[in-house]
């Protein structure tokens, strides 16, 4: 049963008591989208989660920064057309795809390679039973945990999209880093995510990096007054003129650890993007930022709830969608046989 995994394991023992408010029963009792299940691969691929964790442990031992890349890919997948693996598809014949849209240009090529490598390992053990969208979701979940964050179950059973997401959809659905809290609240509300979800999910920026063009609106033509002065000085050293190629970390305190220091950064005016810092400036979200900065277990709890919500956005289940044999390409026609499940729609009827 998934119940055995339905708890949050927090590394520092001190947090265990505080987190007991969100115990086993609560997470796997959450209502989930029909077609998904907490124990979806229990019989078809019982070793799935073990395979993913074991491999990612090896990958992160070499380079922990890959965790951030994997977390971000899942976020991008879910926000554009739903968590359907569409972000993984490469080059459509008929024009630019989701991967080529500006916000995706900074997704790490390694993240796509890691996901495809996980798929290969999983399918070797379990044949083509596990979708690329589920592997992406699991990789994000493991990235959070292996970088020091909470351990939590996620519902599985997603199918992979048959179609590409357009560049237009990508731009319309992924808010930019210059967005204000007002814009973000509206974009999230449109996806049934509330202010707490927004602030908690933004905590994903506790790991990872950014390129100068994503934040140099705060440096040029003039310095954003909400930037801490010393912090700004260092950013000018990294990005001496606008549109340079260099990178810096998103969380200056603990750049590779999944913890609540991102919120401490915001309280010290050391958030990197306008979209980060404005969460502390805006009265509607400020108290949520403060509550996470002083209580890591509260942040972990809300982050997990946000991820479980986000991970179910517009998913394809049953016979809607397919299980790709290659995460970056739709299946060739020899795979076009109905997959299990009692859905109404035929597989790949559209082509
Ligand atoms: C609130 C809306 C969000 C905006 C505007 C935003 C924007 C960005 C931008 C501009 C970057 C850096 C791109 C670059 O220049 O390299 C970035 C990186 C990142 N974002 Fe977000 N993001 C948002 C929400 C999220 C969410 C919900 C998550 C996950 C839960 C997330 C996880 C990450 C991670 C982990 C990185 C670092 C990636 C790496 O190191 O390769 N972001 N984000
Ligand atoms: C909300 O979502 C709908 C479709 O789901 C989209 O057409 C609309 O542009 C979105 N609005 C905002 C503000 O994101
Ligand atoms: C940008 O960065 C890439 C990779 O780090 C490098 O190959 C390229 O030369 C850089 N471009 C500029 C204009 O600095
Ligand atoms: C997977 O699909 C991509 C994109 O079409 C292709 O470049 C790659 O060679 C494929 N991999 C395998 C193992 O067939
Ligand atoms: C046009 C372009 O550069 N597309 C890139 C989008 O991001 C992926 C992953 O980094 C690259 O593989 C694509 O080449």
Find the count of extended strands (DSSP E, 2+ residues): 2
Q: What portion of residues belong to β-strands? A: under 5%
- What small ligands are held by the chains? protoporphyrin IX containing FE, 2-acetamido-2-deoxy-beta-D-glucopyranose
Helix/strand structural class: mainly alpha
For the largest sheet, list the strands in their spatial order.
Answer: 1-2
Q: Looking at the structure, what is the overall shape?
A: globular
Unreliable parts: 1-21, 340-351
Major sheet details: 2 strands, antiparallel
- Rg measurement, Å: 20 Å
Distance between the termini: 38 Å
pLDDT average, as an integer?
Answer: 89
Helix content: 40-55%
Helical stretch tally: 14
The CATH top-level class label: Mainly Alpha
The CATH topology = Peroxidase, domain 1
Number of individual domains: 1
- Report the CATH architecture: Orthogonal Bundle
- The helix/strand order is HHHHHHHHHEHEHHHH
């Amino acid at each position: 049963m998934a119940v055995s995994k339905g708890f949050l394991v927090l590394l520092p023992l001190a947090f265990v008591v505080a987190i007991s408010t969100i115990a086993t029963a609560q997470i796997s009792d959450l209502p989930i989208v029909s077609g998904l299940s907490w124990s979806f691969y229990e019989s078809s691929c019982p070793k799935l989660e073990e395979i993913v964790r074991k491999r990612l442990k090896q990958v992160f031992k070499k380079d922990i920064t890959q965790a951030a890349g994997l977390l971000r890919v899942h976020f991008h997948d879910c926000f554009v057309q739903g968590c359907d693996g569409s972000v993984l598809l490469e080059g459509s014949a008929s024009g630019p795809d989701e991967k080529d849209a500006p916000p995706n240009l900074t997704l790490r090529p390694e993240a796509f390679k890691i996901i495809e490598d996980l798929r290969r390992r999983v399918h070797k053990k379990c044949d083509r039973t596990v979708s690329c969208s589920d592997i992406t979701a699991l990789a994000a979940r493991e990235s959070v945990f292996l970088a020091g964050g909470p351990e939590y179950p996620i519902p599985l059973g997603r199918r992979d999209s048959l179609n590409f997401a357009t560049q237009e959809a990508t731009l319309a659905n992924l808010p930019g880093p210059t967005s204000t809290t007002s814009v973000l609240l509206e974009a999230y509300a449109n996806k049934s995510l509330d202010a707490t979800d927004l602030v908690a999910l933004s905590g994903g920026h506790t790991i990872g990096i950014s390129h100068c063009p994503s934040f140099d609106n705060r440096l040029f033509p003039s310095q954003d007054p909400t930037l801490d002065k010393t912090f700004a000085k260092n950013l000018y050293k990294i990005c001496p003129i606008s549109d340079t190629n260099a990178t810096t970390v998103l969380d200056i305190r603990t750049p590779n650890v999944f913890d609540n220091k991102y919120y401490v950064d915001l309280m010290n005016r050391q958030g990197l993007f306008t979209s980060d810092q404005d969460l502390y400036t805006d009265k509607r979200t400020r108290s949520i930022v403060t509550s996470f900065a002083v209580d890591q277990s509260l942040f972990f709890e809300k982050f997990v709830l946000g991820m479980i919500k986000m991970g179910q956005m517009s998913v394809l289940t049953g016979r809607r969608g397919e299980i790709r044999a290659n995460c970056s390409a739709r299946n060739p026609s020899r795979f076009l046989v109905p997959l299990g499940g009692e859905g109404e729609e035929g597989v790949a009827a559209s082509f």
